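Budget justification aside, the reviewers requested a transparent look at the raw inputs and outputs of the sequence design task funded under Objective 1. We therefore reproduce one unedited record. The lines immediately below are the structure tokens for a 792-residue chain.
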């Protein structure tokens, strides 16, 4: 029977399914999400399994769906349903393949046509700009033979060059390639060319990448066929597009008119093509989400079927499944529904299997307890039916965090943030954010909620709110009686920087302590830190001993209670025994605890706490020493006696001709050494673990000091300002104070306290009883697969 303190009782069964009903039965189990399938084909290659072709078909469909999703990523919104569609039957997969493949082919054809049209549009647009710009180039042709074309002038002076015709090449090139293009032309042609270029007014869209590209129009004048070939090769090398350009202005104008007409016609065709493409995408968007869910379900089913065996007759699918015993009836109903859906008349058969395999660990959780269970599982998944620390962690984790973080103000801010996440959890879940940091915070919203509540509680205990104290009930200490009795006066105040209240003076101390938490007068006392350090240090020791004791075994409890439990007793006894009137005569607990181990009771400077203290302490030390051999010897000898008893029973059965049993190996020496290591580790751990809890005091002190520094250095300055300047400054200073408070005290200090609380639970608390060497129950669940939370 399951409980919150132990994992669910699990059962391993062999499942026999008719081949025709296997798909539908597995689908129903996936909807239920309570069955873990064992892989019975571990030694079979993934490409040699029975349903590998079906898995490949699903992967092909997923590729098509990813292609469609990428195509509609910017312009088309995918319509999502309120609930997941039902698992399709195998024959529906064929129809889905036909529709998706046809849609992919049409969309690819539309994309190809659109790309070709846009490429033509790009070339015509470039030609249009080139024809316009070359007209400007030819208008300054009279300046062609200028000072920059001395090489051409030299050629023109020769008889052969005079007979040659002057040619030109015009084209378009990317703007960033223009400078190296010009430099190479000049060097390769030895300055015997004339290059003119200008920038295009508007950027062009690349039809392949759909990115804007800035280009230049150029024209190169040259003389001779050899230069023409060099220029052509250089243009090809720089991927410049060369266009034919007529020499006469009339021909250029006629060509420009023709280009403009073709551009207009091409715009019409491109618009129609894009409209057809958008229509295809909108048709796909209506079903894309449902298709994706169906393909994931089909693929998951065939993946599970690949983990099963098929008998020699090819008529029966055999699977082995783990499931919680408490859900056996639900699983049987799901199998029956799968059988009915498939139209089969042969009911699935579940057969119990006796095995020595360790079952998986399954702890039922809800949205509240899931975060705390994850903290435990992060250390290690518990062994099967092992004590689960998560129920204790629900209280102890936020409490230990709050001991280190305790501040009413900071706790209230944390509580407000957690309440916002809890109240709006449905809308926040619907957003399905992919931000890992946000998802971490949101998953632990109930943990943060309790951390905020406990931080406010410990803040009231410490009487600390942004480093200031509340005075709800009135302080138990009063200053006025010190003046009325003439103990203090003006001269005393001037002569002393620090004064001490005397509780013996009538009226100074009311006789009753502050009803709840620390008296607010300590907030203004100069020895505040000394008092709080002593208080928090002793409190940390008390918590550090009480917390691990609850998880110890009898001899371990005797050992830790006899020594460190007694230390807790002395702390509490001293708190109750000595009040403000007798505190000066209170003995030192530290000296008493050291003398307890040394059996030294002759120190007259340190008075005993109570009568017969010597006898009690001596008895406890001896009792603790007795517990050590108890821990060391009892368990190995009991195991040895049990093994010998089992061996005698096996021998008796053998003599009677019974079944031969497998004899387990038993090594008494190994068990004894292991128990000795455990005993030494526990005895030393009692000291180190108790000391480790002093981090509660250290982090609480650090948090309080940082809070006080932040208030003194920032907020105090704003509150002490006056006038209109102070009114304006308070808003700016408060904003800075709020930002620093959130960044340093809530985020940084909160993370530090969280990690230390984690350490205290994983090391100091759980190592007393928790092994954490199991493996997690990973059921076959469509919800986990679709949401991406399936276990590997």
């Amino acid at each position: 029977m399951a409980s919150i303190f132990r994992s669910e009782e699990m059962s391993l069964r062999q499942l026999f399914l008719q081949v025709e009903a296997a798909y539908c039965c597995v689908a129903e189990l996936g909807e239920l999400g309570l069955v873990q399938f064992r892989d019975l084909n571990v030694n079979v290659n993934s490409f040699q399994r029975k349903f590998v072709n079906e898995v490949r078909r699903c992967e092909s469909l997923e590729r098509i769906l990813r292609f469609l999703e990428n195509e509609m990523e910017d312009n088309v919104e995918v319509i999502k349903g309120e609930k997941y569609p039902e698992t399709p039957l195998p024959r529906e997969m064929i129809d889905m393949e036909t529709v998706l493949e046809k849609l992919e082919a049409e969309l690819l054809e539309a994309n190809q046509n659109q790309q070709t049209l846009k490429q033509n549009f790009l070339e015509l647009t470039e030609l249009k700009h080139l024809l316009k710009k070359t007209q400007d180039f030819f208008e300054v042709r009279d300046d062609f033979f200028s000072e920059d074309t001395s090489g051409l002038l030299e050629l023109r002076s020769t008889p052969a060059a005079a007979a040659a015709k002057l040619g030109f090449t015009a084209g378009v090139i990317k703007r960033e390639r223009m400078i190296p293009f010009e430099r190479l032309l000049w060097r390769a042609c030895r300055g015997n060319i004339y290059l003119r270029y200008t920038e295009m007014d508007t950027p062009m869209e690349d039809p392949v990448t759909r990115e804007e590209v800035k280009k230049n129009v150029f024209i190169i004048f040259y003389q001779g066929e050899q230069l023409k070939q060099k220029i052509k090769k250089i243009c090809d090398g720089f991927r410049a597009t060369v266009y034919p350009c007529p020499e006469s202005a009339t021909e250029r104008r006629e060509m420009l008119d023709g280009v403009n007409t073709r551009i207009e016609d091409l715009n019409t065709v491109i618009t129609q093509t894009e409209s057809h493409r958008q229509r295809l995408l909108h048709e796909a968007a209506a079903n894309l989400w449902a298709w994706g869910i169906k393909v994931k379900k089909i693929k998951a089913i065939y993946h599970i079927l690949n983990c099963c065996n098929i008998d020699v007759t090819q008529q029966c699918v055999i699977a082995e499944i783990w499931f919680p015993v408490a859900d056996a009836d639900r699983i049987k109903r799901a199998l029956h529904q799968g059988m009915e859906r498939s139209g089969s008349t042969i009911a699935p058969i579940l057969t119990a299997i006796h095995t020595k395999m360790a079952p998986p660990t399954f702890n039922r959780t809800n949205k509240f307890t899931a975060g705390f269970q994850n903290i435990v599982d992060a250390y290690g998944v518990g062994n099967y039916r092992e004590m689960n620390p998560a129920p204790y962690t629900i209280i102890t984790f936020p409490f230990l965090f709050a001991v280190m973080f305790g501040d009413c103000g900071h706790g209230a801010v944390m509580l407000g943030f957690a309440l916002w996440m809890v109240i709006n959890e449905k809308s926040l879940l619907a957003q399905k954010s992919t931000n890992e940091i946000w998802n971490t915070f949101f998953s632990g919203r109930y943990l943060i909620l309790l951390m905020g509540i406990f931080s406010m509680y410990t803040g009231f205990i410490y009487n600390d709110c942004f480093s200031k104290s509340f005075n709800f009930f009135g302080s138990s200490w009063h200053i006025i009686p010190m003046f009325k009795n003439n103990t203090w006066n003006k001269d005393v105040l001037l002569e002393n920087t620090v004064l001490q209240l005397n509780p013996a003076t009538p009226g100074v101390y009311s006789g009753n302590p502050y009803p709840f938490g620390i008296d607010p007068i300590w907030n203004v006392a100069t020895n505040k830190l000394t008092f709080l350090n002593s208080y928090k240090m002793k409190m940390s020791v008390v918590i550090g001993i009480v917390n691990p004791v609850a998880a110890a075994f009898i001899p371990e409890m005797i050992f830790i209670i006899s020594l460190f439990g007694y230390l807790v007793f002395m702390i509490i006894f001293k708190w109750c025994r000595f009040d403000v009137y007798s505190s000066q005569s209170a003995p030192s607990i530290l000296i008493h605890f050291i003398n307890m181990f040394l059996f030294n009771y002759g120190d007259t400077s340190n008075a005993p706490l109570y009568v017969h203290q010597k006898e009690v302490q001596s008895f406890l030390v001896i009792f603790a020493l007795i517990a050590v051999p108890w821990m060391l010897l009892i368990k190995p000898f009991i195991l040895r006696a049990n093994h010998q008893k089992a061996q005698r029973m096996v021998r008796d059965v053998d003599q009677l001709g019974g079944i031969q049993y497998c004899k387990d190996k038993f090594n008494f020496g190994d068990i004894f050494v292991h128990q000795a290591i455990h005993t030494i580790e526990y005895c030393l751990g009692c000291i180190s673990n108790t000391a480790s809890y002093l981090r509660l005091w250290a982090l609480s002190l650090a948090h309080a000091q940082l809070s006080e520094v932040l208030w003194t250095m920032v907020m105090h300055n704003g509150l002490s300002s006056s006038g209109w300047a102070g009114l304006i400054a308070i808003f700016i200073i408060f904003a800075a104070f709020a930002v620093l408070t959130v960044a340093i005290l809530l985020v940084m200090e909160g993370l530090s306290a969280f990690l230390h609380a984690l350490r205290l639970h994983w090391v100091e608390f759980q190592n007393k009883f928790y092994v954490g060497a199991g493996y997690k129950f990973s059921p076959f669940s469509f919800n986990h697969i679709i949401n991406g939370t399936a276990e590997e």
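The chain is about 60% helix and 5% strand. The first helix runs from residue 19 to 32. Computational costs for records of this kind are itemized in the attached budget.
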